[in-house]
Design a protein that fits this description.
Layout: H1 5-8, H2 19-23, H3 32-36, H4 40-47, H5 49-81
């Protein structure tokens, strides 16, 4: 979606992940115990490692790090600007 966003000329793009593939039976869903314990991502990584490894092991942790730095920087800035 990101790569094609300018060509599509749409105000909003909505990613549905594997929803359609799961509903039509193209992909298997993780076992219930994995879904209940937040491990569906691991099942998908093991099922499609070549496609998902970079997203799950590089991109997402990098995004979490960037967001964390931003949040903690804003908290420190907010604390330093408070009138005491």
């Amino acid at each position: 979606m990101y790569e094609h966003r300018t060509r599509l000329q749409l105000p909003v793009l909505l990613g549905v992940g594997a929803a359609f593939d799961l509903n039509c039976g193209r992909l298997r869903q993780a076992p219930e115990w994995m879904r209940e314990n937040g491990l569906e991502w691991l099942f998908r990584l093991l099922a499609e490692p070549r496609r998902l490894w970079k997203r799950y092991l590089v991109t997402i942790p990098s995004a979490i790090w960037g967001i964390s730095v931003e949040i903690f920087s804003l908290k420190r800035l907010d604390e330093s600007l408070r009138i005491r």
